[in-house]
Amino acid sequence: MEEIRPRAAGRKRQSSATADRRRKAGARRGEGTSRELLLTAARREFARRGFEGARVDEIARRAGVNKQLVYHHFGNKESLYRLVLESVYTEIREKERRLDLSNLDPTQAMRRLVEFSFDYLAGNRDFVALLTDENVHKGRRLKQVANLQPLHSPLIEVMGQVLARGAEAGLFRPGLDPLHVYISIAGLGFFYFNNIHTLSAIFGRKFDDSDEIAVRRAHVVDLMLHGLRR
Q1: Contact at 8 Å (CB) between 208 and 98?
Q2: DSSP 3-state helix, strand, coil percentages of the chain (rounded to 5)?
Q3: What is the DSSP letter of 124?
Q4: What are the DSSP calls for 206-222, one per residue?
Q5: What's the burial of 68, exposed, middle or buried (CB within 10 Å: 0-12/13-18/19+)?
């Protein structure tokens, strides 16, 4: 009996320490989960109502968490909004990196980029809405996002390399500015999805239908590739 008691006490201490570690790990997971839930809810709310119209109460309700967690994680609504802008740009840049454009034939690389850019806007209308609202305010809060320009630079650099390879191979016109090519690619899709409802009303066609979107996609890809060719 004398030998059993110390071991039992040791097991209790070990069990208590293990439980404490698990509680702390669970708290960290809970913090991370609530933060991600709030970012997701905020992205939807800001896209739906813009920065001015979005309400912290509604963001918390959508996330299913206490309103005070917004201030705990982000400080205030403006900080949360800047993080949403940073996260949407980070998301699209990460997906563009996965396209592996450097290892593709120049024509294939540009086709893949144009298709991806159009498809991303088609599937992420909240991205279009967020950028539209931020442009109404002259990009004031986007300018406050740290490291925004370095985030975009790798894509433009890779595009420049692809365009140069295409020119050397006689496939593309020489001297194409990758930044302007990127703006053209983004603009052709962005205008369509940003104005899809007014265009539908003006021309009496349901441009939000999948068939119409497919037609527009094919047109944008064809137009861009022809514009690059020698």
Answers
A1: no
A2: 80, 0, 20
A3: -
A4: -TTSHHHHHHHHHHHHH
A5: exposed
Instruction: Report residue 60 as tokens.
Output: 């918390």
Domain boundaries 1-75, CATH class: mainly alpha
Task: Supply the pTM of this predicted model.
Answer: 0.80
Strand intervals (E) in the chain: none
Q: Are 59 and 45 in contact (CB under 8 A)?
A: yes
The amino acid at residue 110 is M
Could you tell me which residue, 24 or 2, shows the higher pLDDT?
A: 2
**What are the boundaries of each domain within the chain?**
1-75, 82-230
Domain 82-230 carries which CATH code? Answer: 1.10.357.10
Please say whether the dihedral angle defined by the alpha carbons of residues 222, 224, 225 and 229, taken in this order, is positive or negative: positive
How many angstroms separate the CA atoms of 212 and 204, rounded? 12
Domains 1-75 and 82-230 share a fold: no
Give residue 190's identity as a one-letter amino acid code: F
Place of tokens 């004031």: 140
pLDDT in tens, 90-116: 899 999 999 999 999 999 999 999 999
Q: Are 88 and 147 in contact (CB under 8 A)?
A: no
Whole-angstrom distance, CA of residue 136 vs CA of residue 205: 27
Residue 169's SS3 state is coil
**Nearest in space to 41 (alpha carbons), one of 80, 90, 95, 94:** 80
CA distance 88 to 127: 7
Taking only Cα atoms into account, the Rg of the chain, rounded to an integer number of angstroms, comes to: 25
